[in-house]
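Quarterly update, task 2.4: tryptophanyl-5'AMP-bound model.
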Amino acid sequence: MKTLFSGVQPSGIPTIGNYIGAYKQFVELQDEYDAYFCIVDQHAITVPQDRLKLRDNTKKLAAIYLASGLDPEKITLFIQSEVPAHAKAAWMMQCVGYIGELERMTQYKDKARKQNQRDGISVGLLTYPSLMAADILIYGTDIVPVGEDQGQHLELTRTLAERFNSKYNDVLTVPEVKHPEYGGRIMSLNDPTKKMSKSDDNQKGFISLLDDPKAAAKKIRSAVTDSGSDIKYDKENKPGIANLLTIYTSLTDKSIQQLEQEYADSNYGTFKSDLGEVVEQFLIEFQEKVNHYLESGALDDILDEGAVKASRKADKMVAKMERAMGLGRKR
Ligand code: TYM
């Protein structure tokens, strides 16, 4: 069975963009792969975090993974900092990567620009993609389902794996990236040229998975739309409506074509009001499941078992990498 790996940061509560771009794909793929899902808390501390909030978000993220429909009997769910192999391999990957290639990462440039005004930029923010490459490579991962914003990091992961294999020994699998057909980049509700992000200063731009469902419906109703009145999927000329159609098709079993037909004679108001109801209902049901997991007491056991299982697999690869690089004694 092939191996799948993906991760989400507990730097805030995930948005419906994260759900559509990541979690939904995870659920669709869980039966076909030996799947590892990680709460990447070590990535979160590359920018300042409140200690208590980070702990709370980490736990909520575990519940959100499961509420999305992942079955803990089939998959491995764990917290990055509880599996030491990640940090060990990250150091090795830092010594394989070059400063120049890290400085070219657009996410680094964006975050560094924002951070600069506040507290300065941590070394971790620059070397973040080395940790991400380590996350993926220590499981011998074949496929990484992610949203489109992670494409550049995945390209670098492939480059680092190939460089490691040719410089040392052929031990790493070069992974493939997988983006969803629709919804690989859900856009902000108040500016459809910008990615929807949980760290947006404007609350109207995103819907968090734990937002009040009625307030979320309101955000949809007041989403920025385009000039004209046709409900057509046209990313170039109608980015606002295209984004809302993508959200609609992702949360229901209706295709974009079906939605275009259904709303052929409707105006934006009716369309947005209906989508608001879809989102509201989705969040009500989703949050019931999240609360169930948070209250069930099973979460800690699932995460404990996940860390043991993940370590068992990752430690073997880390040992191979260390041997290839000449670290430690020959055993
Ligand atoms: P993160 O936590 O920012 O996002 C988690 C996942 O959600 C996707 N995503 C989106 N998809 C569609 N539309 C959006 N607006 C949107 N925003 C985010 C992301 O592409 C991602 O799939 N560096 C990663 C976490 C990570 C990781 C890994 C992922 C660390 N190690 C190894 C895969 C494999 C990140 O910051 O994702």
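Highlight for this quarter: The chain has a mean pLDDT of 96.
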